[in-house]
Design goal:
12 helices; single chain; about 0% strand; mainly alpha; about 290 residues; elongated; about 65% helix
Length: about 290
Amino acid sequence: MKKLILFLSVITIVCLSSCDLLDNNSTSGLSNEDIVNGLKTALQVGTDSSVFITSKTDGYFKDAVIKILLPPEANIIETNIQYVSQLQVLKVLNIDLQSLVNNTVKSMNRAAESASKQAGPIFKNSISALSITDGLKILNGENPTLKSTASFDSVAATHYLVSTTQNDLITAYKKPIDGELDKDLGLGFSTNQSWTTLVTNYNHIADVASQTLTADALIPFLSQSQRDMLKNFVPITQTSLGTYVTTKALDGLFLKVGDQERSIRRDPWKWLTTTVGTILTKVFGSK
């Protein structure tokens, strides 16, 4: 009798374990076609929404998270703006650096917004190529283009897109970005013109600052704090904005795609009344 009870217990444990294994591997009864369609739909929703958001006027410029600021080499300009008004020898030059900075930043973001729509077709090509194997990994929070990690990646689909589209996007974006940088996007000047004007005027101020520091007739009239301010004005080299704006524009775009992916994973029912609601809730609502 004891042997029979032991035997039945073992059988029960094995059956329960097998059932658990089947449940874990079945992804709540979803077919492979469901999973791939759900992932492709989620990616399409995420990329379409992100392109729409970033390509609108102020899509970059008024979003503090993705707003494109001056290139790193120009940070010194913003640091030194405060000193111009404090030093009479520079103030008399009557150069409004802050306005020049504002013009350049705004026009860079306008260029990114104008070029953003170029991403749509490239995203679609990558999404259409998504395989069943890759789809299963992405659904479970794993980027199939990287080695497996222990933690769940809530933006695995976005990281997959970065891996499969970034090179093509850089190539596709660079040309329109360069074109947009040369256009007057409603500001009365092009981005490249505003950048050149900013660098030229700043370097002129830096040159005057340097001459002041070496002018024997002026040195006795300068306090130590004034000398320290003048020493901050180091000239910068004007570089091409194309690569910089392209990289920053794509960083912002992928950030928005990631936001959309998290939103779909967290609450797929938000799309329930839309044309894609059925497949999104079926696939992501079961996770």
